Amino acid sequence: MLDRVVELFWEQGFEATSMSDIVEVTGLNKSSLYNSFGSKDQLFQTALARYTSRREQMIHAGLRDGTAGLDDIMMFLEMVEIEMTSDTGSRGCLAINTSTELGRCDQSVVEMGTRFRGEMRSSIRAALDRAAELGEIGPAAVEHRVEMLVAFMMSLGVVARGGAPKAELDGQLAAMRGLVDSWRLDS
Amino acid sequence: MLDRVVELFWEQGFEATSMSDIVEVTGLNKSSLYNSFGSKDQLFQTALARYTSRREQMIHAGLRDGTAGLDDIMMFLEMVEIEMTSDTGSRGCLAINTSTELGRCDQSVVEMGTRFRGEMRSSIRAALDRAAELGEIGPAAVEHRVEMLVAFMMSLGVVARGGAPKAELDGQLAAMRGLVDSWRLDS
DNA sequence: CGAATTCTTTACCGACCCTTCCAATATTCA
DNA sequence: TGAATATTGGAAGGGTCGGTAAAGAATTCG
Hints:
The structure is a homodimer of 187-residue chains. Chain A is mainly alpha-helical and 187 residues long. In chain A, 75% of the residues lie in helices and 0% in strands.
């Protein structure tokens, strides 16, 4: 039920989503919503927390908890591509959308965004460290490479949400793969 | 006067900005606004066009119309850094903010975003082509490198708008500089 | 000067916003 | 079963939203 709320905010954004929309999509009564969540803002915070938690899990599962090195990153990119080019892919990333919509006026959103990106860095860094231990890449410049991948993820979210043609997404993904490949020592 | 409107939409976004806000900040009367611009949507389109036009000019001036190669890119990054870390830097980029806010429901916004990113690519590509002619970098992989720089620009917009601490912006910028430097043939 | 036209001001419109209240209903628990 | 508690339904409150109509002021132009 809360998942419906997540999808609605994800689809439309915070300001553009009214409590009436939420009543409609959840089937719950307006009073029940206010009893359970307090206010629209609190409901949004709850939905956003649910979203980021699941996202972080998915990212961790592929990158931090993986066993390979660069291949974990490549598999992760495949997952990203599949999701990004699906019919719901143009919703982008709720964490990014919220950062740009409310980052200027809501401190809790600032913290959410900072934490979210931090989790992403940590997962990517773990995969790169494994790749270094395996001898696939050199151990230097890990931090820079983490930033590069994070930047690509941010960009993909924006570009997908912006309704870009599939070719443009493919171009970014190809560049991302080429970048990772260029790190291989045996190339 | 239109510049005030641009700043307001830039600061708050489309949905969060009311016509009353605009009346207040411009000093113009509400009827005058509707006489001149037709509707809130049209006024926003006008303001957005003004913003993107100026942005593209700034980007072109540094990259497409430059005379050096990689140094033009480095100078451009310096400009980006100065603006990004200024007190108004946390407004991010109106084109990006608008893409994530309205990209899902407004076709003209989709086109604006696609065009905006296209202009960016064209400018960056021009600088990279010059760098290749000068022998600073190899001529291959230009398209991938264009995508990498575009991705960094998108990411910086999101991260800045998200209220990230200065150190995080610095980290992304450092990685961006390191990336460009790594393309140099004589390194 | 005086008539025609443009621009500005004021007041207001219906719709929708988030939220609350209160009566009606369902549920729990003794 | 009967009383206490929680949950629901729908209406309405207080505001703000984007947008407009008509009266008033200023300007143009003969």
